[in-house]
């Protein structure tokens, strides 16, 4: 099957120094958190998921893959031992099964590509919401220590010799004025801040997670499980067999292609070749990607202005009827537009989850509790698909839906 080549492996020498804002960042601009657990929805997550490593023809790659296979994969990654696809083990059972790899039921494979080094592909059809990979980080640094090169070196020195070897083979953007270990850390780490309610999650590097290439229209999303110390990647849309699986390194999805390219080149040293970046070269639909993203940004700006205006007017007015606020109508209109643009562009990740959260919040301000509950349900499904049932945001949604339904009853809606 033809493999799509959507993004380029980071390559080349770059001279910028890494900072906290140039790491792979799943945290998006917005706003407020409101998640919970719906057990019916959680059941959707009880799918098989496992991982395989397919050795490439390149001897050095094959050696690396063999090392990976014999060490961190078997020790660190989740693999369902029940490989019959009809069997759906509970999430926790799956979590505990860390020592087997099934060749016949794996979801992804790592292949060597002619132009981009290693890349990861779906080895069979993956449904939206499936857990694609869960791996224990090789290195993880707290918020306080992630900018401290000595702390990174210290954590590296605590790794086993085999894991050190794996780590040193990860992509190095050769960031200036840094040791190799630190440079590799900043070239591969994922930001974990948004996965904790206090916003201080730090960052982590995973052996397999580092092999996911970037796409501006990603089909995977990271969620970090702090209880189990696992980087968990969920499919945020259906992924056909043979398609490359990609995450998003760049947090500002509203940027135009040229701006995204500039940032990716600067921080990671590669030119993205995803659908959204190829634009007109891809087809008519993707030729309009920039136009859609510009409209998303306009809508987002309007929502921010409404938030400011609403908050200020609520403070200034003695006894306002908040439902009469012009800001509510405008914010809801902008959010509905933003939601439809995100869906059209295929950006099903955390920005869409945040949009549903805002839609629910503004509907609640309008005291339209049934509508607020419906948006909250959409947020919950989206959060469940992209962040998983363990995520605090998913868990909080359920409580909030119950509260909104109760308020709808109380107000006779
Ligand atoms: Zn791109």
Kindly summarize this structure in a few lines.
The chain has helices spanning 39-44, 59-76, 91-96, 149-157, 161-168, 180-188, 257-268, 275-278, 284-287, 289-316, 326-345, 350-365, 369-387, 392-410; strands at residues 24-25, 108-113, 117-122, 131-135, 139-141, 190-191, 203-205, 213-214, 220-225, 230-235, 246-247. By secondary structure, the chain is an alpha+beta fold.
Topology overview:
Elements: E1 24-25, H1 39-44, H2 59-76, H3 91-96, E2 108-113, E3 117-122, E4 131-135, E5 139-141, H4 149-157, H5 161-168, H6 180-188, E6 190-191, E7 203-205, E8 213-214, E9 220-225, E10 230-235, E11 246-247, H7 257-268, H8 275-278, H9 284-287, H10 289-316, H11 326-345, H12 350-365, H13 369-387, H14 392-410
Parallel strand pairs: 1-6, 8-11
Antiparallel strand pairs: 2-3, 4-10, 5-7, 6-7, 9-10
The structure holds zinc ion (ZN).
